[in-house]
Amino acid sequence: MCGEIVNTPGVAAPIQELILSQPIDIPVFHEVALRLQQMLNDNSYRIEEVIKLVHEDTALASEMLRCANTTYNSGKAPITTIKDAIVRLGSQQIVNLAFTASMSHSKSDDPIVNRYFKNNWYHCHAVAISSAWLAVQIINDQKPLEIDADEVYLVGLFHEIGKLYLLKSIDKLIKEGLFRAETSLIDNFIDDHYALQSVKVMRHYNMPSIYIMASERHATKQILDPDDHLLAITRLSCKMHDFVINGIKAIEAVDDVESELSLLNMDLNYVYDFVKSITESNWL
Question: What does the pLDDT look like over 146-188, one tens digit per residue?
Fold first, then answer.
């Protein structure tokens, strides 16, 4: 990844270096989620091992069950055990839920930083769900694109992971009295640095290359390649989330989504339908 570290006005160089040098294991991801991902990569797991691992952290297990029973994931009957969740949703979705639950736990005693944590989580979760929804539409329409809804979900969830790392680093320095919790400083610093940090975090955790490359290309706003469907879905989902926040009339700016829709062989009706359903049901 190319590019030099940008100096953010208002933040002294030594403080910038201190923020960026904080250990990545603050942690950004929960250990259980990482171990589940490794088990899935190695194809070396049994359902009993997954259940035992998830139950090592009861708070995480409870949050995973809550996520499994949301409108997006739920079936006809409530999921009441981790075993039920694995059987119904499959191993990859269990990994997805573990990462989702672990990222949702980020909090701060500082009200300003805590708001950033909430907003970052809400956006990444919304993009993950939107991305998976788009992938399902593509698959159901039998479009000639190789898309995996579970992979797409994690790409959406991780697409701005560098922001989470920076917020945790900033929060640590605020507690130590070395950084001021001012919105303008935090906004500018994160915007300047999160692209490089996203890739650094993903590489540190040895995440599969598909997620690293998608995160890097999204963060650096690289131009879409003809076969860059993952990035197209992530960017379209980001814009769809903006439409949900700003109101459905924002979709009238068709130019904003034209390149992504074209690459995915989709039309604007998909975006209208999704944003309308989200706005009416309030399930994001």
Answer: 788 888 999 999 999 999 999 999 999 999 998 888 888 899 9
How many alpha carbons fall within 13 Å on the CB side of residue 122?
13
What residues does each domain of the chain span? Answer: 13-24+107-281, 31-104
Query: Cβ neighbours of residue 250 under 8 Å, at least 6 residues apart?
Result: 242, 243
Instruction: Residues 13-24+107-281: name the CATH superfamily.
Output: Hypothetical protein af1432 (1.10.3210.10)
State the pTM of this model: 0.84
Terminal-residue alpha carbon distance, the chain = 33
What is the residue whose two structure tokens read 């399930």? 283
Q: Are 147 and 177 spatial neighbours (Cβ–Cβ below 8 Å)?
A: no
Q: How far is CA 180 from CA 71, 194, 230, in A?
A: 39, 19, 37
Give the model confidence (pLDDT) of 248-282 as tens digits: 555 555 567 888 888 888 887 777 777 777 666 55
* Contact yes or no for 225/212 (Cβ under 8 A): no
